[in-house]
Specification:
Order of helices and strands: HEHEHEHEEHEHEHEHEEHHHEEEE
Number of strands: 14
Helix content: 40-55%
Number of domains: 2
Shape: globular
Structural class: alpha/beta
CATH superfamily of the largest domain: Response regulator
Distance between the termini: 80 Å
Low-confidence stretches: 1-34
Strand content: 15-25%
Length: 390
């Protein structure tokens, strides 16, 4: 009888060990428990219409994590990552957040797109979970003090776009086509329109569409054309932008097109004639053909790992992981702290660090208490099927 009890105890112990060893992250990291690693979750669309963004963030996150771990980790502690697909859907994003919590997430790099990020921000606030979104640009993505972002906010993008168009004298008559049902698009448009009043161009047409009417843009294009707009501002995602460029071409409307980070990905749209994007300008903090050593090394490593050129979303995520490392070290965090205590340490650290990231420009990236980054915007133009720094 004693032998049977002993054997039963061994079997139970073996089952516990097997269960623990099966809890490794889905991105290839090794399994660890007991506060011996930092567990960083990621959320973004790897399927669906915004998959280019989410997959790029996943790649950038993975690449930075491998580099950081190879260099000794965060204060000598390794990082585990796990990434969940939310299909650019707010409800699915919240479900992904809860899945990552069950996995043991201590910090979140995400989410990727604005509407899901706003929903997840509410959950992260309730948990006092540190949230650093690489690309959620809506104001409310970081309305709580546990949240920061790497990208520019929608207001910043709208203001900077209006100023750039005026400064570079790109047009005197501008039309806007935007998605009034999307917080990203409508947020940028609102600030763009306000700032345009201070610049030396006129908005001659402002035409909206919604998620229920995002396939046929003939009316919006015709109104821009009839108004004599020399440039069309597109504060929208690349999927709709590709349709607009194709339909503008068919309507013989020869205008300049200008967008923000949402257009990054247009060259990868299936069955899209990329020659139609020739001359399209994007305002972005990252240019893959920049010649500084850090960007050159990042692009080289990314191409070797994923066989493609990184876009802004990959770069923002890459910088985001290095920001998490720097903030945790500056804040004196340890992996055995509670999620809330790690958040407090990271919040403190974010206000003390400067990250010499690939999206930061000459002065790097710093953060303010409202979670916003300070860094320099750049403009790129699509030339011969590639993004070129201007």
């Amino acid at each position: 009888m004693k032998n049977r009890k002993w054997i039963s105890a061994l079997l139970v112990a073996a089952m516990v060990i097997a269960t623990l060893s099966g809890c490794g992250d889905k991105s290839g990291g090794s399994s660890s428990t007991g506060g011996s690693v930092y567990k960083v979750g990621g959320i973004g669309p790897t399927t669906g219409p915004a998959a280019v963004y989410g997959q790029a963030v996943k790649n950038g996150m993975e690449l930075a994590t491998k580099e950081i771990n190879a260099a000794g980790g965060i204060g000598g502690v390794q990082i585990e990552i796990s990434y969940e697909d939310d299909e650019h859907d707010a409800e699915k994003s919240v479900n992904a957040y809860n899945t990552l919590k069950d996995w043991g997430m201590q910090l979140l790099l995400g989410t990727v797109t604005s509407a899901p990020c706003k929903a997840v921000a509410e959950e992260a606030k309730n948990d006092n979970m540190f949230l650093l979104t690489p690309s959620g640009s809506a104001v409310d993505c970081i309305k709580y003090d546990n949240a920061f972002r790497v990208c520019f906010s929608d207001p910043n993008q709208g203001i900077a776009s209006a100023q750039y168009i005026s400064k570079e004298k790109l047009a005197t008559k501008v039309a806007v086509i935007y998605d009034s049902s999307d917080v990203y698009s409508s947020g940028i448009y609102q600030k763009f329109a306000e700032e345009a009043a201070n610049q030396d161009f006129e908005i001659v047409a402002a035409e909206a569409f919604t998620a229920d009417s995002n396939k046929d843009f003939s009316t919006q294009i015709q109104k821009a054309k009839d108004a004599g707009a020399e440039l069309v501002f597109l504060p929208i995602y690349y999927t709709e932008a590709a349709l607009i460029l194709d339909q503008a071409n068919k309507a013989n409307y020869d205008a300049k097109f200008f967008g923000c980070d949402g257009l990054d990905g247009i060259l990868t749209v299936e069955n899209f004639d990329t020659t139609l994007a020739e001359g399209v300008i994007l305002l972005t903090p990252f240019a893959a053909d920049a010649t500084d050593e850090q960007t050159v090394n990042f692009v080289k490593a990314y191409k070797e790992a994923y066989n493609e050129t990184p876009n802004q979303f990959a770069a923002d995520a890459y910088d985001g992981m290095y920001a998490i490392k720097a903030a945790l070290e500056a804040g004196g965090a340890t992996p055995d702290m509670s999620v809330s205590d790690i958040c407090e340490a990271a919040k403190k650290g974010m206000l003390e660090i400067t990250v010499d990231g690939v999206t930061g420009g000459e002065d790097g990236i710093t953060w303010t208490a409202d979670g916003e980054p300070n860094k320099s915007p750049k403009a790129v133009v699509i030339t011969d099927g590639a993004y070129k720094a201007m």
